Hints:
Order of helices and strands: EEEHEEEEHHEHEHEHEHEHEHEHE
Structural class: alpha/beta
Number of helices: 10
Low-confidence stretches: none
CATH topology of the largest domain: Quinone Oxidoreductase, Chain A, domain 1
Shape: globular
Distance between the termini: 12 Å
Helix content: 25-40%
Mean pLDDT: 97
Number of domains: 2
Largest sheet: 7 strands, mixed
CATH superfamily of the largest domain: Medium-chain alcohol dehydrogenases, catalytic domain
Strand content: 25-35%
Bound molecules: NADP nicotinamide-adenine-dinucleotide phosphate
Radius of gyration: 19 Å
Amino acid sequence: MRAIEITQPGKPDVLQLCERPMPVPKAGEVLIKVHAAGINRPDVLQRLGKYPVPPGASDLPGLEVAGEIVDGDYAAAGFAKGDLVCALVQGGGYAEYCTAPAEQCLPLPEGLTALEAASLPETFFTVWTNIFDRAHLAPGETLLVQGGTSGIGVTAIQLATALGHRVFATAGSDDKCRACEQLGAERGINYKTEDFAAVVKELTGGKGVDVILDMVAGDYIPREIDCLADDGRIALIALLGGAKAEIDLGQVLRRRLSISGSTLRPRPVAFKAAIARSLRERVWPLFGQGKLKPVIYRTFPLAQAAEAHALMESSTHVGKIVLEVA
Length: 326
Ligand SMILES: NC(=O)c1ccc[n+]([C@@H]2O[C@H](COP(=O)([O-])OP(=O)(O)OC[C@H]3O[C@@H](n4cnc5c(N)ncnc54)[C@H](OP(=O)(O)O)[C@@H]3O)[C@@H](O)[C@H]2O)c1
């Protein structure tokens, strides 16, 4: 099969088209003929040599695909040969064929093409498990999304809005702030020209937000503590602004604050299968109801994966970048 491999750590042009043997599904896995594969920032980190491949996973990049089930243990998860699915995978998505644990596959949401569905698994699994399972965003509570126009950010804004929450989001330009608002955020906050903590406090009448989805960390953490409501929670998913922070633990103590962090990729299949069940039951119907829609900024043919990575690193995109495979 044709695939994209990382020839060595480095710039986007280290992504090269290659021929590889077809992957063979293990027990509990399906083989998917890939129609499209989503691109995510962790793929860029992997290409740069900063995100080691977990043991047993493919060395090929790509954490999400959509396509047709052609072989494997599909019946174990209630699927049939020929079904179109989207799946969260451990790697190997930038290829014509990819294996996936059957329990990490989901049917295409009503009305979506495989290309659109390929943009969903990584961000929906990540956002669901962080905002709802870890940070327990509850009815009536408010959310601040850092990086509102990232793939993760657009999912977080749309999903929390669809479930009835007030959402605020940061982005690095006024145009991106307006894009956040079109997706449902009550207010996009330009983090380059505004103090997000002050804006959030003003918009919440001084109370602060209940949950913050944070991919920045570093010196954002003390400012986030300042604009968290009592009993507020920070769900940390990346360290784009650095891994070190100086914080006032007195505030954490007095106001019962929590900071948690997680990375999805190394978690076991059973953990991801539980998220898949929640998504299928609680989230997938919202696509059919018109409350959620994929936000795809641009697609590229598989052979142009390097151009797709360069676009992601330019940070000019809003939403997802997807590779068309078949
Ligand atoms: N923990 C996990 O399980 C997990 C899973 C998936 C992804 N992630 C992480 O989540 C992040 C987003 O992933 P993605 O694929 O959606 O990436 P992406 O589309 O490339 O987005 C990166 C975003 O970071 C924003 N950003 C950078 N510096 C910022 C700052 N100082 N303040 C606010 N926003 C800032 C950028 O906003 P501007 O362009 O507006 O500056 C951009 O929207 C990545 O860091 C990725 O590694 C974590």
